[in-house]
Amino acid sequence: MAIEVTERPIDEARVVSTFNTKIVEAGIEDYLFVYTHAQPGEDARDVARIYFSQGHEINFVQVQEWIINNLGTIGAKCRTMFTQQLLTLLDTPQVPAKIKMAWNDSLKCIVVTKKK
Questions:
Q1: How many whole angstroms separate alpha carbon 59 and alpha carbon 96?
Q2: Alpha helices (H) along 1-116
Q3: pTM for the complete prediction?
Q4: What radius of gyration, in Å, describes the C-alpha atoms of the chain?
Q5: Is 62 in contact with 39 (CB distance < 8 Å)?
Q6: Is residue 93 over pLDDT 60?
Q7: What average pLDDT does this structure show over 50-79?
Q8: Which long-range contacts (CB under 8 A, 24 or more apart) does 24-28 make?
Q9: Are 45 and 38 in contact (CB under 8 A)?
Q10: Which residue has the higher pLDDT, 15 or 113?
Q11: Is 22 helix (H, G, I), strand (E, B) or coil?
Q12: Chain center to CA of 22
């Protein structure tokens, strides 16, 4: 399985290009486009259906939904492991400050503090 996380639009040309340059060449059986904002066009879904009928799995999922579903189904122990690993990664100097700030901003949106 190969997973591609992308912010770029996914259209028919993109799926065909990915199929020819990645899926076929590497013998990938299951390819997942994880997109951030713009949903794949219907033309992209149509060509993915054609490849499916030929035995190739090409699917699309929105990143936020994918993360929520994964974290919601892996169980408390795995969520704890995920959180610990993520925090460890965020604590490394290789992670840009912009990502760390985005993480903190996201947490602020989740955590609601009420003033008395």
A1: 30
A2: 12-18, 24-26, 42-53, 63-73, 76-90, 97-110
A3: 0.73
A4: 18
A5: yes
A6: yes
A7: 93
A8: 26/2, 28/1, 28/2
A9: no
A10: 15
A11: helix
A12: 18
Of residues 19 and 99, more confidently modeled: 19
Per the CB < 8 A criterion, the answer to whether 29 and 1 are in contact is yes
Using DSSP, state whether 68 is helix, strand or coil.
Answer: helix
Mean pLDDT of 98-108: 86
Amino acid at 40: P
Angle between helices 97-110 and 76-90 (to 10 degrees): 140
Structure tokens, 114: 């009420």
pLDDT in tens, 80-91: 999 999 999 999
Residue 47 CB neighbours (<10 A) = 20
State the average pLDDT over residues 40-67: 95
